[in-house]
């Protein structure tokens, strides 16, 4: 249908407005999208395909004790080891595509903690490092540079800080596609969550959801006249479970979200699973 962005709606959930404590983190993050419908601009079902879109991503991040504007500073990188995307208007359910997709690098990750609230602001970009053929409907890469800005907050309710809610916005600003006179319109994704901590704060369980919308249509002489001016959107919601064990230095996360209210996009179910290795930095000695 329309040109998609790099960010996957539903990629984050519980406590997504919080940066990690100082340390090094390595994450294996598989995302599985079970596509069972192709929606038109008005939300009507155009086709009912049977497709599994899988993205296996390796993420590495460092959170430091260095302060910038009073915030803890960090950086992160995500390498999509295998990422299959539909990037054209032609839809072939028998086609397959795989390979390394576009690299994401965030040189600026800032986090603040004030009372019961945590705040974050991130800047990163996607480089068109994945294979992209303008004449192919399936490509591992999306074929364009993209700037990504994130801002969010997590709030822990009450003195025990057992109940928690969060909200994260992701803004995508895109460059022209390689080999095509098409510039994808800017996109906004808002992700929210509400959960409760258990087991001495090691577990967090609740519900997470997201809303996505393209803020303006694709532009350029290469835009298909039949699709000119169309704005796509999607929503999703579902349960999430997180567990962190500091003795094991491991964190686990599982999230399921069902799409609804989709227009001009593929629709289905999203499964997100992650395993994170945590190597926390000891706090500086008190003077």
The average pLDDT value, as a whole number, equals 88
Question: What is the makeup of the main sheet?
Answer: 12 strands, antiparallel, barrel
Residues in β-strands, percent: over 45%
Number of domains: 1
Chart the SSEs and their pairings.
Elements: E1 23-39, E2 45-47, E3 51-68, E4 71-83, E5 85-86, E6 103-114, E7 117-127, E8 138-139, E9 146-157, E10 163-174, E11 187-198, E12 203-214, E13 233-245, E14 250-263, E15 266-280
Antiparallel strand pairs: 1-2, 1-3, 1-15, 3-4, 4-6, 5-8, 6-7, 7-9, 9-10, 10-11, 11-12, 12-13, 13-14, 14-15
Q: Can you summarize this structure?
A:
The protein has 287 residues and is mainly β.
Account of the protein in words:
The structure is a single chain. The chain is an all-beta fold and 287 residues long. Helix content is 0%, strand content 59%. The model is unreliable at 85-94 (pLDDT under 50).
Keywords, separated by commas or semicolons:
59% strand; single chain; 287 residues; Porin; 12-stranded antiparallel barrel; two-stranded antiparallel sheet; mainly beta
